[in-house]
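Incident log, structure service

09:12 report received: a user says their structure output differs between two submissions of the same chain.
09:20 pulled the input from the user's history:
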Amino acid sequence: MHRYVILVSTRPGGPGFTRTVERLHRELDGWAPALDTDLAAAWVFTAAPSRLGHRRLGPTGCLIGRDFGPDIQDIDKLLDRSWGAYVAVSVDPPRRAVRVLRDPTGRMECWRLSLDGADVVFSHYDDVHRLQARPSEIDWTYLTHHLNQGWMHGEATCVQGITEVLHGEELIYADGQMSRGLRWRPHEIAARPYETLAAAQTAIRSAAETAVPAWARLYGRFTLDLSGGLDSAIVLGLLRGQGSHEGVIALNRVTPGEAGDERAYARDAAALHGVDLVEQEPVSRDVNLTTPFPRKLMRPRNRILPLGYDETGIETARRLGAEAYFTGTGGDHLFYDNLQAHAACDYLHNGGGLREGVEATVSLAQLSRDTVWGVCGEVAKHYLRGRPPLDQLWPRENRFLTATARAGADYERYTHPWAVDAAQHAPPAKRNQILFLLELQRHYYRYGRAEAAEEVHPLISQPLIEACLRTPAHWFGVGGVQRGLARRAFADLLPASIRNRRSKGGNGIYFIEFLTKRLPRIRELLLEGRLAEKGLLDRAGVETALTPLRFAAGEDFMSINTCLTTELWIRQTEADRAEARPLAVLSA
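09:34 re-ran on a clean worker, output below:
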């Protein structure tokens, strides 16, 4: 477990910063001091099996987490010459200024709250909430928006007074003021595309060979979630074929049902690379949908559901002596699964020639199972439609909300600036790829099984993200197949069964079966819960949907799941707030 607290003076010379430093010295007893100046201070707590740590950054700064590459001492050079998972702090004594930078992957959580004379930047709310005069309350305004669109969010959270420092964002404190700005923007990376398909393929392979073994070298023994899909097989190939790591144990989490059973593919990948494969079905002993872990989350997450993956994962890690869980998470998003015909618009946007344009159109027609004329029609449709409004970037209607809740959606206020930039500057397929990066935020937050062993998604690394952003979208479907470029780039690391497969398994059936067995509890939570009490939930619509036959069909699954995880989060947050005791009381 890796936790940190950074305190920054917002009123230089005032007593608020000094008082809070003294409080934190007492409260964080046993933590390692990482920075101690009259403008900023930082503390780090590292417990096994964390391998992140911290280091000095210049004479008056620190980098909390882990960076790879040369020993950079200048915060301005981190994004260009280094990469990793970090939050960096730099103090400029002559200018009386402080800068805080979060890396573009966002692997380390980074939240901010303001106190009297100081800002606190932190990873775990549990460590700092007692600094407040009274516990923060739920922000029902943002939570209502979350019910409409829960993942394309910017800095806002569901907790009043707590904001997120965004991926690649920098906070600058100077002259008693704080300003914030993005130092890393995906659409700007994408605006420098590779000139040839061969160059893109080489860059993607090189970036993956840099990132995956680098993370693996931090651990002696770890499991890899080997699902049987393309991405986890690529990670295994990079771990064994490139890194020759001996401590890998492949783990296939068996999903009941023919549609989700991927064991045959996982066995092929494990056999190719000579690793042991542990096959294990997730089992949840929880029948009441209680939140199994004490971590305080700033927004509702699917991981709040006791689905059995976390519970079984913890038992497995302890039994096998694993220090970390590696996954292939991120490959769908980076290698562009589900590329659509409108990627031909991107080709025209990049100024491609006629011959290559015909080839791209034919390839996209094969991929989308359409005709060449159908692809041309998609291009015309997107050009005539123009730039989509923010609420139509990724439309997903939650039909179980009342009119009041639907009216509470505020896309202008809450949409992530990456999405705003993409809507204004990127062609449609590249725009969607940038939105996929936002969807990845669902996977970043360390919760559940990550309490027992570190969770590592090595594909979600800055070098690979940038290589994929610079790859023109239509190239990802080369050969007329989804993720054709990834299949080519990593062909030697994949068994033929995975390299050539065109279908994909999933755990949707398991999710639905798990929740169907708990429908009485779900009915109780939703129909008698806080969302219904606040007039945000359509009770009649929910009651109609929560029958075994209809729920098992899966038509309403995503909307019900959003409402359910939000309700569970509300109940846990309100219970935590009722039990919270401010530090001022404890110190009295």
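09:41 both user submissions now match this output. Likely a transient worker issue. Closing.
09:42 reviewer note: The two ends are 30 Å apart (CA to CA). The first helix runs from residue 15 to 27.
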